[in-house]
């Protein structure tokens, strides 16, 4: 979840590596209500420079809380390594036994940046959820995962020497499990509008009409707020070997099927 606008009755659900931050900044311009919720992003300085609404997402005046989740995930990691457990449960994150890496104190937010839609529904009024205009965005699965690979390198979460197949083998299942849980609600897509990354400007123009945003220069606006540029290499598909391609196709099957993306 990225944005909830009570004035416009709008919910934007934000998957990973789909230009979600750009869309979020664009929409935050119109979220000026006292009770609106906007999750924090790395590009807060850009949003401030543009004069748009910034993060409004704290649960209380006490902005920090102890990270009990760290210890919960530690014990859950033992379950994740049980042989055959993936046949019984969907695993969204790899095992993590390094609790000493912390952090032990975390921001006391109402919502995460990439909140699962089922958790959004639990946290807000059910009537508002049902009536709100719900939006999300999707992208070609190959490009989505390649973008994630380069982003992880850029942030220093993986070594710059990490090979794409190695990363795909170890992370692809978890990544697409997360993507599915972010946008699917009990295997359904409860959205009024789904933006396609490949048709970003055209779809935002259509969206603007539907949610009554008076914005004639969407292309120009997006050029001002375009984020995370030049991180993914232009010849990105050169790293897509056959073994990695098959792993992506297996784990992103629902995205190929539901959104009409072609396998290559």
Which labels suit this protein?
264 residues, alpha/beta, 5-stranded mixed beta sheet
Task: Describe the protein.
The protein has 11 helices and 7 strands. With 264 residues, it is an alpha/beta fold. It has a 5-stranded mixed β-sheet with strand order 3-1-2-6-7. A two-stranded antiparallel sheet has the order 4-5. Helix 7 runs parallel beside helix 10. The two termini are 31 Å apart.
Oligomer: single chain
Q: Overall mean pLDDT score? A: 87
CA radius of gyration: 19 Å
Structural classification:
alpha/beta
Number of helices: 11
Biggest β-sheet description: 5 strands, mixed
Topology, element by element:
Blueprint: E1 3-5, E2 10-12, H1 20-28, E3 37-38, H2 44-50, E4 64-66, H3 68-80, E5 105-107, H4 117-123, H5 126-131, E6 133-138, H6 141-155, H7 164-183, E7 193-196, H8 200-210, H9 218-225, H10 242-251, H11 253-259
Parallel strand pairs: 2-6, 6-7
Antiparallel strand pairs: 1-2, 1-3, 4-5
Helix pairs in contact: 7-10
Brief overview, please?
The protein is α/β, with parallel strands linked by helices and 264 residues long. It has helices at 20-28, 44-50, 68-80, 117-123, 126-131, 141-155, 164-183, 200-210, 218-225, 242-251, 253-259; strands at residues 3-5, 10-12, 37-38, 64-66, 105-107, 133-138, 193-196. The chain contains eleven helices and seven strands.
């Amino acid at each position: 979840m990225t944005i909830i606008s009570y004035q416009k009755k709008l919910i934007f659900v934000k998957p990973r590596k789909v230009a979600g931050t750009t869309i979020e900044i664009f929409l935050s311009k119109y979220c000026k209500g006292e009770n609106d919720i906007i999750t924090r992003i790395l590009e807060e300085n850009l949003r401030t420079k543009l004069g748009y609404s910034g993060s409004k997402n704290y649960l209380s005046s006490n902005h920090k809380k102890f990270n009990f989740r760290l210890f919960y995930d530690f014990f859950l990691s033992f379950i994740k390594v049980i042989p055959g457990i993936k046949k019984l449960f969907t695993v969204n994150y790899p095992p993590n036994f390094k609790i000493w890496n912390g952090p032990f104190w975390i921001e006391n937010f109402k919502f995460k940046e990439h909140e699962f839609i089922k958790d959004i529904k639990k946290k807000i009024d059910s009537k508002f959820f049902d009536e709100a205009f719900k939006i999300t965005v999707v992208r070609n699965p190959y490009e989505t995962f390649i973008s994630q690979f380069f982003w992880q390198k850029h942030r220093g979460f993986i070594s710059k020497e990490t090979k794409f197949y190695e990363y795909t083998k170890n992370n692809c299942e978890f990544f697409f499990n997360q993507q599915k849980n972010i946008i699917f609600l009990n295997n359904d897509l409860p959205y009024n509008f789904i933006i396609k990354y490949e048709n970003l400007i055209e779809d935002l123009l259509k969206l603007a009409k539907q949610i009554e945003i008076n914005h004639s220069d969407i292309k120009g606006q997006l050029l001002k707020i375009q984020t995370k540029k030049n991180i993914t290499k232009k010849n990105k598909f050169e790293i897509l070997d056959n073994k990695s391609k098959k792993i992506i196709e297996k784990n992103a099957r629902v995205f190929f099927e539901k959104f009409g993306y072609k396998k290559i």
